[in-house]
Amino acid sequence: MVGFGIGTTEFVAMGLLPDIARDLLPGLWETSQEEALSRSGWLISAYAAGVVVGAPTIAAATAKYSRKTVLTILAVVFTLGTVASATAPTFETVVAARFVAGLPHGAYFGIAALVAASLMGAEKRGQAAAFVLAGLTIANVVGVPAITALGQSAGWQTAYLAVAAMFAVAAVAIALFVPQQGGDPTATMRREVAALGRPAVWFALLTGALGFGGFFAVYSLRLAARDGGDGHHGGLRALRAHDRGSWHDGGQLRGWLDGR
C-alpha cells in the first residue's frame, strides 16, 4: 500500500499542475499562465530533491536499526508530509512540504525490498523486489488517473489528503503485521556511503537521473499543455496519466519472473 501511495503522490501533481497553479499562484496565473505552470513545476522538483537527499542519507543512517521500526517511521513521515502538502497556506510552504514528503521515498523501497527478500528467501530476491514495487506499478496504471480525476473534481488538496489516508493505513498495517527484523549492528555511515566511491554506482545514478529527469520534464508539462490551462480537458489529463503509467509493467514482469 505504501508503494501504491508513493507512486500516486509522486506522479499525481503532473496532472494537477493547472489546478495547483490557479490556486497557489492566482496573481501570476492571471498575467501569465505559462509562467505560473512553469513555477508550479517546483512542486515536482521539490519532491524529487527530497528523494535524492533522503534516499542515501536515511538508508545509511538507519541501517543498524530495526527495519520494521524504520519502515513505520517512514510511512508516518509520508503521511505528515502529504497532509502538509494539502494544508500548507502558501506556495512556498507547499514546496517545502513536498520536499519533506519525498525524503522517505528511496529509503522506504530499499528497506522494504530487504524485508521482503528476507521473508521470501534469498532465491526469490527478484520476486521480492517486484512484489514491493507492485504498488508503484498499480499506482501508475490505476491510482494516478483516479486521484487526478478526484483532484480535478474535488480540489487538488483532496487528492493529497486521499493519498495521506493511504499512508496512514499503511503505517498502521506495518506496525501491526510486519515481523520484527533487526538491522545490521555493524553498519556505519562511513561504510554505507563507501559505495559512492565505485564508478559503476555513479554510472547507474547518472543513467537514472537522465532517464527520469527527461521523463518528468516531458510528462509534467505535456499533460498541462494538452489541458490548455482552462480546465476543460481534465478527463483527458486523467486518461493520459493512465496511458503513461503502463510503461512500468515491463520492469515489473521481469522482476517477478526473476529466479523462476
Automatic annotation (TrEMBL):
Organism annotation: Demequina litorisediminis
The Major facilitator superfamily (MFS) profile domain, residue ranges: 1-260
PROSITE patterns: MFS
Name of the protein: Major facilitator superfamily (MFS) profile domain-containing protein
Broad class of the protein's primary localization: membrane
Stretches that traverse the bilayer: 42-63, 70-89, 95-116, 128-147, 159-179, 200-221
Keywords for the protein's UniProt record, in alphabetical order: Cell membrane, Membrane, Transmembrane, Transmembrane helix
Keyword Iron applies: no
Cellular localization per UniProt: Cell membrane
UniProt xrefs under PANTHER family: CHLORAMPHENICOL EFFLUX PUMP RV0191, PURINE EFFLUX PUMP PBUE
Listed InterPro entries: MFS, MFS_dom, MFS_Efflux_Transporters, MFS_trans_sf
Membrane-topology descriptor: Multi-pass membrane protein
Transmembrane helix found in the keyword field: yes
